[in-house]
Amino acid sequence: MKKLLVVVDYQNDFIKGGLAFPQAVALENGLCDIIKKYVSDGNEVVFTMDTHQKDYLSTYEGKHLPVEHCISGTEGWELYGKVKKLFDKGNFKIFKKSTFGSFDLAEYVKKSGFHQIEFVGIITYICVLSNVLICKAACPEAEVAVYRKLVASPDNELNDKTLDVLRSTMIVIKDEV
Q1: Residue 142: CB partners within 8 Å, gap ≥ 6?
Q2: Phi and psi at residue 60, in whole multiples of 5°?
Q3: Can you tell me the distance from the alpha carbon of 170 to that of 142, in angstroms, rounded to the nearest whole number?
Q4: pLDDT tens-digit readout, 130-142
Q5: Which tens digits make up the pLDDT trace of 60-106?
Q6: Beta bridge partners of 122
Q7: In the structure, what pLDDT confidence band is assigned to residue 17 with cuts at 50, 70 and 90?
C-alpha cells in the first residue's frame, strides 16, 4: 500500500516568530519520530511551506492577517529545529504555497496513486484543514488521516472543533502514532 506523510508548515515563524504559539514547539519530537518511521518503512514524506513575498501585507491574506510571516528566503520561512535537520539529511519534496492549501500537492497526490495520505503539522484550522480537504477531493478513494497529537493551533478549542469537522468529512482522526 502506497503511503504519504504530509508535514504542514512547521516553519520558524510559527514556532519562534511573529505567529509563534507554545503548542507548536511541543510537536517537534513527535514530528521527528513519525518522519523517521515513514522513511525507515520506505514510505514518502513531503513538506508544505507557507511562502509569502515582501508584498505580503498588501495581499488579501495580509490585509486580514497583518503579521508578516514566512517571507521567502528569510529565517522565518525555514523549517524549524530538528525537523529542519532531518529535512536537510533527506531527499524530500517541498510544496511552497502562497495561500492555505496547495493545488500542486493535490495534483501530486492525484498522479502518484497514494492509498493512504496522513497529515501532521500546523495550524490545524487553517493550513492543515485546507490541505487535507484538497487532497481528499483529489483522491476520494484514498484513506486520508490526521494525527490528533501531531497537529496544533494557537486556539485549542478551535483545533478540536476542526478535528470534529474533518471527521465528519470522512477523514480519519488518529489518536496513536
Answers
A1: 109, 114, 115, 116, 117, 135, 136
A2: -55, -50
A3: 11
A4: 999 999 999 999 9
A5: 999 999 999 999 999 999 999 999 999 999 899 999 999 999 999 99
A6: 152
A7: very high
Instruction: Read off the C-alpha cell for 138.
Output: 483529489
Angstrom distance (rounded) from CA 81 to CA 11 = 9
Residue 160 and residue 177: Cα distance in Å, rounded? 18
H-type alpha helices, the chain: 12-15, 22-25, 28-40, 60-64, 81-89, 103-112, 129-138, 156-168
Per DSSP, the residues of 48-92 read EEE-B-TTGGGSHHHHHS-----BTTSGGGSBPHHHHHHHHHS--
- The domain limits of the chain are 3-174
pTM of the model as a whole = 0.97
* Distances 80 to 11, 98, 129, 137, 141 between C-alpha atoms, Å: 5, 19, 21, 29, 33
Scanning the structure block, which residue is given the C-alpha cell 502562497? 98
Instruction: Give the integer Cα–Cα distance in Å for 132 and 31.
Output: 17
Domain 3-174: CATH class, spelled out: alpha beta
C-alpha cell at 80: 524549524
Cα distances from 143 to residues 98, 109, 136, 155, 173, in angstroms, run 26, 12, 8, 27, 11
Residue written as grid cell 523517521: 36
